[in-house]
């Protein structure tokens, strides 16, 4: 019997005050840079981390699990929607693409 | 223009104060997101992909210069210096921070504006013909009735938790510029044989997942019966509409599942019960509202300046050919200011552009501004002798694009550049199409053509009623664009037909170009617009142009 390998995840959310995309790090803080997020390769741990994130409702809103893959500098998005969230809109130089 | 009375003023201020307290309690942790979310949505505050988004109502699309300047101030002070005009005559700010939103709402209240019921399962901002009060073809100005409906529907205690959102549009003209047949209720002003004013009432239109053209529920409802009749419709929907399935909750599905005859019977019965409750108060209120919408005293000044500018300046002439519409007063014109410069984001105006428009309206436009569902700004009353000055000022601020009604005058929803519901981007596709046809210098040759783009099935970009509709989807993790043809949002409303398999982001602009080439090759002459050619020939020649490989394999 073979099980499909688990697609690695990161926990994403929106910041309560600013509303922008944030990701959960391994030390329980939130980062605005997805490559600093914790890449979770185990399904049970991912569920556990999501429950932790949902409990952070006074810091973030709408936590959810996002598919990711290991990149040179850390986790990278695999879907275009999540890639847009790491950058910002394509019609103006606004959002994360111009913020440090 | 309508001005808030003491009741309106107190109500809006109280809502701002309540929301200020709610935001404070959310930030200090007393309210959870589950508790706060319905409260913020009641005040038009969404959470999107990159930030919060505040959706502000522009009732029936009408603004004065003071309001427009305040919208500009809000954009500068709490956002990134611009605003996005939407297909429902709202303006959206894409970058507010949570703590600032109560101040933004307070600033709106200062100019008699609000964001109430721009979200949620309520009766949303009432929209109207953007040429209201100015158009030559108008029976009567639809805005007084739209204002009456706004007052009736705002905070209506029975209608705060409908099965789903509910949209009403009104037109006072036989030429429907308000897409009334794609609304939950569409109202068309008519007169009966005795010459009395009333409404043809259309119910059950809507785009989205299951697009439908509304059907007439009653051909003539006298003006004096309109509010009880509307209340009867929403009552029946409130009881009958489905709450078990979000995708079957709009009134279009209620009408389709129960049949128009059943709905009509129930509405008429409820109307009989309700009629006497209104007791004429609504008509007194309407009479007071009507005083606020008296037409300006249109001046006469001759047309020499206009005619000589047209003769001597070809760019001005081209702009007057595309961007003016016939006004009820023959020395005046309705100016549609294109917020669709080639390559720009459809519907986005900078704070500087908003101020320029406010100044022009105040100086040369009887202080009136309208926002169209096609995401342009209208100066509804400009004396023709002032048009050369209006044009020169607009040109200095990137607002003189002569493309209204043409291929680059594209409706596009925010799509996945902003919207959390989107499945693909809309804005870059609109930008690329407009830029490409500007390079080809084909726009005026192609003539009247409406392209409408939505970034998901919910159809905020009205793609189903575009002559060419484009729907952005996520196909296995890649943006994919489906084309529909033959849609129409006017009095001859029709839902476009899907042409076939979708195209990638790289393929979509060349596909549109092939469509246009096919149209130019098949049309009987420049006077036959794209939609007419489509109606004469049907899908076949356009399908052949979109999918040439298939044609070749069939021939082989």
Can you walk through the features of this model?
- The complex is a heterodimer of chains A (100) and B (556).
- Chain A is an alpha+beta fold and 100 residues long.
- Chain A contains 2 helices and 5 strands.
- Chain A has one domain (9-97).
- Chain A has helices at residues 43-54, 80-87, and strands spanning 9-15, 21-24, 30-31, 60-70, 75-77.
- Chain A has a 5-stranded antiparallel β-sheet.
- In chain A, a hairpin with a 5-residue loop joins strand 2 and strand 3 (30-31).
- The radius of gyration of chain A is 14 Å and the shape is globular.
- Chain B has 556 residues and is of the alpha+beta class.
- Chain B has 19 helices and 21 strands.
- Chain B has helices spanning 6-27, 33-42, 65-78, 101-109, 143-153, 226-240, 251-258, 260-278, 281-291, 304-312, 314-323, 351-364, 387-396, 427-440, 443-446, 505-522, 530-537, 540-546, 548-555; strands spanning 45-47, 52-57, 62-63, 82-85, 90-93, 127-128, 168-171, 185-191, 197-203, 215-222, 324-326, 332-337, 348-350, 369-371, 377-383, 411-412, 451-454, 468-475, 478-485, 497-498, 503-504.
- In chain B, the strands form 4 sheets. In chain B, strands 16, 17, 18, 19, 20 and 21 form a 6-stranded mixed β-sheet that branches. In chain B, strands 1-2-5-4-13 form a 5-stranded antiparallel β-sheet.
- At the A-B interface, helix 2 of A face helix 14 of B.
């Amino acid at each position: 019997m073979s099980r499909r390998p688990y697609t690695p995840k990161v926990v994403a959310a929106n910041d309560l005050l600013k509303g922008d995309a944030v990701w959960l790090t391994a030390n329980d803080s939130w980062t605005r840079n997805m490559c600093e997020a914790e890449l979770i390769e185990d399904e049970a741990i991912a569920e556990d981390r999501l429950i932790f994130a949902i409990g952070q409702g006074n810091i973030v809103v709408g936590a959810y699990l996002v598919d990711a893959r290991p990149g040179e500098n850390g986790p990278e998005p695999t879907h275009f929607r999540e890639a847009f969230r790491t950058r910002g809109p394509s019609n103006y130089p606004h959002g994360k693409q111009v913020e440090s | 223009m309508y001005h808030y009375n003491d009741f309106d003023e107190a109500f809006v201020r109280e809502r701002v104060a309540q929301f200020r307290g709610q935001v404070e309690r959310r930030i200090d942790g007393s309210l959870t997101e589950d508790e706060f979310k319905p409260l913020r949505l009641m005040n038009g505050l969404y959470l999107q992909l990159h930030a919060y988004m505040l959706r502000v109502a522009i009732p029936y699309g009408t603004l004065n210069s003071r309001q427009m300047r305040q919208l500009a101030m809000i954009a500068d002070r709490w956002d990134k210096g611009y605003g996005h005009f939407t297909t429902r005559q709202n303006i959206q700010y894409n970058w507010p921070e949570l703590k600032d939103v109560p101040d933004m709402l307070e600033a709106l209240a200062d100019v008699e504006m609000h964001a109430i019921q721009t979200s949620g399962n309520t009766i949303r901002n009432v929209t109207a013909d953007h040429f209201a009060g100015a158009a030559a073809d108008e029976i009567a100005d639809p805005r007084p009735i739209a204002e009456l409906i706004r007052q009736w529907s705002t905070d209506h205690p029975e209608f705060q938790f409908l099965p789903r959102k509910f949209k009403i549009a009104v037109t006072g003209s036989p030429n429907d510029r308000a897409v009334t047949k794609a609304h939950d209720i569409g109202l068309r002003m008519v007169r009966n044989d005795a010459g009395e004013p009333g409404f043809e009432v259309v119910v059950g239109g809507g785009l989205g997942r299951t697009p439908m053209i509304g059907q007439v529920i009653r051909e003539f409802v006298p003006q004096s019966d309109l509010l009880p009749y509307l209340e009867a419709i929403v009552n029946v929907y409130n009881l009958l509409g489905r709450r078990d399935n979000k995708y079957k909750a709009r009134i279009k599905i209620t009408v389709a599942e129960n049949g128009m005859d059943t709905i009509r019977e129930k509405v008429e019965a409820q109307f009989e019960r309700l009629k006497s409750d209104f007791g004429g108060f609504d008509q007194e209120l309407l009479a007071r509202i009507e005083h606020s919408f008296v037409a300006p005293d249109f001046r006469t000044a001759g047309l020499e300046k206009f005619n000589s500018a047209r003769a001597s300046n070809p760019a001005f002439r081209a702009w007057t050919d595309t961007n003016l519409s016939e006004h009820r007063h023959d020395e005046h014109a309705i100016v549609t200011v294109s917020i669709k410069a080639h390559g720009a984001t459809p519907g986005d105006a900078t704070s500087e552009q908003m101020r320029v428009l406010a100044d022009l309206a105040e100086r040369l436009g009887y202080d009136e501004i309208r926002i169209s569902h096609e995401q342009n700004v209208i100066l509804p009353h400009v004396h023709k002798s002032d048009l050369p000055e209006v044009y020169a000022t607009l040109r200095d601020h990137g607002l003189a694009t002569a493309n209204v009604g043409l291929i680059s005058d594209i409706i596009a929803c925010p799509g996945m550049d902003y919207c959390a519901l989107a499945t693909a981007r809309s804005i870059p596709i609109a930008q690329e199409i407009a830029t490409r046809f500007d390079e080809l210098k084909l726009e005026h040759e192609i003539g009247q053509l409406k392209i409408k783009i939505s970034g998901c099935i919910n159809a905020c970009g009205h793609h189903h009623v575009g002559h060419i509709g484009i729907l952005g989807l996520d196909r296995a993790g890649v943006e994919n664009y489906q084309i529909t043809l033959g849609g129409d949002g006017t009095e001859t409303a029709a839902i476009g037909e899907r042409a076939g398999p979708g195209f990638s982001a790289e393929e979509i602009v060349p596909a549109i170009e092939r469509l246009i080439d096919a149209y130019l090759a098949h049309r009987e002459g420049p006077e036959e617009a794209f939609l007419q050619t489509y109606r004469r020939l049907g899908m076949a020649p356009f399908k052949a142009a979109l999918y040439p490989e298939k044609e070749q394999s069939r021939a082989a």
